[in-house]
Specification:
Layout (H helix, E strand, L loop, with lengths): L2 E6 L2 E5 L4 E5 L8 E2 L2 E7 L1 E5 L5 E21 L4 E21 L3 H21 L27
Antiparallel strand pairs: 1-2, 1-5, 3-8, 4-7, 5-6, 7-8
Length: 151
């Protein structure tokens, strides 16, 4: 496969292996790999829409800030001037492979490891009990005096 079209953050990108691109900030940490949604694979004959069993692997290289965008408002003859701006939060990703098949066995192995780790961490942690609360005595609230009746 020489190229693929992937979907990230509501946008579509045409990518090749080894290509780096800037996309909207991703929730993945730096150095982690992920599999974006694959829409089309092409390059070897006819393009394949919604391919099954084919996967695109991407790695987050880093999180960066985009170019500064300055915004100015101006109304003539009134002295009204407002300036603001922003820098887009972006993630730089690198496409590692196109066309590698997912290994369903890897998911099963990870699922088996997680309960073991949780069980070990529970066994290691000493049991903590909340300290007993002391009984407090309160004085009864003062009752309001009855209004004197006028005779």
């Amino acid at each position: 496969m020489s190229y693929a079209i992937i979907s990230l953050g509501g946008k579509q990108y045409r990518v090749r292996e080894g290509e780096r691109l800037l996309v909207d900030r991703l929730p993945h940490a730096e150095g982690k790999t992920f599999h974006p949604d694959l829409l089309l694979v092409g390059g070897d004959g006819a393009p394949d829409l919604a391919p099954k069993g084919i996967n695109v692997t991407a790695r987050v290289v880093g999180h960066v800030l985009g170019e500064k965008v300055r915004i100015g408002k101006y109304r003539p003859k009134s002295g009204y001037r407002r300036h603001t701006g922003y820098r887009s939060r972006l993630s730089q990703i690198e496409i590692e492979s196109i066309g590698a098949k997912r290994a369903p066995r890897a998911k099963a192995e990870k699922a088996d490891e997680q309960p073991k780790e949780k069980a070990e961490s529970k066994a290691k942690a000493p049991e903590k009990k909340a300290p007993e609360k002391k009984a407090t005595t309160r004085k009864a609230a003062a009752k309001p005096k009855a209004a004197k009746e006028k005779a």
